[in-house]
Design a protein that fits this description.
By secondary structure, the protein is of the alpha/beta class. It has 3 domains: 262 residues, ABC transporter transmembrane region fold (Up-down Bundle); 154 residues, P-loop containing nucleotide triphosphate hydrolases (Rossmann fold, 3-Layer(aba) Sandwich), CATH 3.40.50; 74 residues, 3-Layer(aba) Sandwich (Rossmann fold), CATH 3.40.50. The protein is built from 20 helices and 12 strands. The radius of gyration is 36 Å and the shape is elongated. The structure holds adenosine-5'-triphosphate. It comes from Lentihominibacter faecis. Its main location: membrane.
Amino acid sequence: MRTVFKYYKSYIPLIVGILAFLFGQAMCELALPGYMSDIINNGIVKGDMDYIWKIGMIMILVSCGSVVCSIVSSYLSARTAAGSARKIRGALFDKVTDFSAAELSEFSTASLITRSTNDVQMVQQTTVMTLRLACFAPIMGIGAVIKALRTSVSLSWTVGVALAVIVVIMLMSFFLVLPKFKVLQEKLDRINLIMKERLTGLLVIRAFTTEKTEERRFDDANEELKKINMFVNRAMSFMMPALMFVMNGVSILIIWAGAHLVDSQSLMIGDMLAYLQYAMHVIMSFLYITMMFIMLPRAAVSMQRIGKVLDVEPRIEDPAEPKTLQQPKGEICFDHVSFAYPDADEKTLDDISFTAKPGQTTAIIGSTGSGKSTVLNLIPRFYDVTEGAVKMDGVDIRDITQEELRERIGYVPQKGVLFSGTIASNLQYGKEDATCDEMIEAAETAQAMEFIKTKEHGLDEEVAQGGTNVSGGQKQRLSIARALVKKANVYLFDDSFSALDFKTDQALRKALKEKVGDSTIIIVAQRINTVLDADQIVVMDEGHMAGIGTHEELMKSCEVYKEIALSQLSEEELERGRK
Ligand SMILES: Nc1ncnc2c1ncn2[C@@H]1O[C@H](COP(=O)(O)OP(=O)(O)OP(=O)(O)O)[C@@H](O)[C@H]1O
């Protein structure tokens, strides 16, 4: 919670301003019943028109003052709430962008979206309400009590009765509804989760004709959300009429008791009406305060959910005194590296040691789940090693900043990810100021130019959200081009050629050798064809290194490699492939 409050610090001067205007508004509103009492007692009863005009004009001026104060304080409250909400949303976005894969897996994507939108919205609404009502109500309430007591002490029991009844109603709603608010936000998370899964997996759902099952899954969650919403709304809708009943009841009570006092000439009629208004102010203030007691816990739930994200300390941090790479070349060395995923019982990688040199291609091959992608993910520090060290040019990558490290790396993920925009804007993710020539060169190397040329707008062709309007192979080629635009020292290809046909795969590797041959290239692959020409091949088997060497060396010395090779190609094909 404290984490969220700090985003209000810069709004303290505005909040002081809001309090000043609210005080002005309360003073104006509290003055009005007094003037009304004067008009009745000294003007209407005595038939003094001049007096009525004079006090009437003062009342108009005081009312205008109240309106001005109310408008200014509302404007300032809205500004404070919207501004702080913008800051909180920004902080959430920045925080989540800094999350490593380990922290991302702690929260579901759907929950992170609900927290950044719905929860922030809740906090924003409550901020406005708190600034307007929670600050206004005590000033108004205390002022009205003082004025009411000054007007008539003998009627004060009526307000006492009303307040007691209101407290009972509010407490009942409080304990009934409050626990439901937390559940409400959780159900909203669930709805978002199902909705997101459904939308991203729409084609699979259709292909497996599981629309009905999915609809049922969504309906169940939707029904649960409806039930809680209905419960909360029902409790709330009972509360308002009950409170109106109390207010009307107390008005009758005051008029009834006041009439007796007026009859016995111990109270003037104007004072009775003024008292009625003060009593309404007291009750309304009390209502506002109790309403805040219901709203605040709900906002507190949202604040806690936001705070939980903001309080996460990223596991991957920059060193306090970072080293810099002098003349970086991009040599990557795995020095007895072991790694276990957070919360996993067993190691995924065990004692991995190899060096990938600049100017050479290092391929990593192995069966699915053997740990190839995990090896690759340790290089840009998506995860940190559990034992041993990964070094770049002899420096432990944990001793340099993540920015400097990632600056040197061109990474192509297993699943081609594109962002909505144009082909050019996607390539510029690699280098913000990449020129048209640089983009074309990278696209040519990635064998993407031939299909870009077929597009009506070439590099300016629109890419839909998630790259749904390009094929899997085209997406992979654009992802490769994006990495190449960067002109990095190290290129990491995580099974990035799998969607390419053999001819394109071969042409791409040849172009890579020519264009970025000086860099360190590390390729994770499933296909033996992709790794045949590599300068060294690391063979992974259930998290261990089963062998390292060239294709020829491994065919002689590594059973696991030989098995993979022969399962994909015959001996003659392997021979031919080499030539
Ligand atoms: N985020 C994660 N949390 C926990 N375990 C994981 C995570 N990612 C992968 N693993 C596990 O680590 C092991 C190695 O996974 P990895 O993705 O590195 O294999 P891979 O050789 O690249 O497989 P593939 O060729 O199918 O992509 C697998 O058993 C996998 O279940």
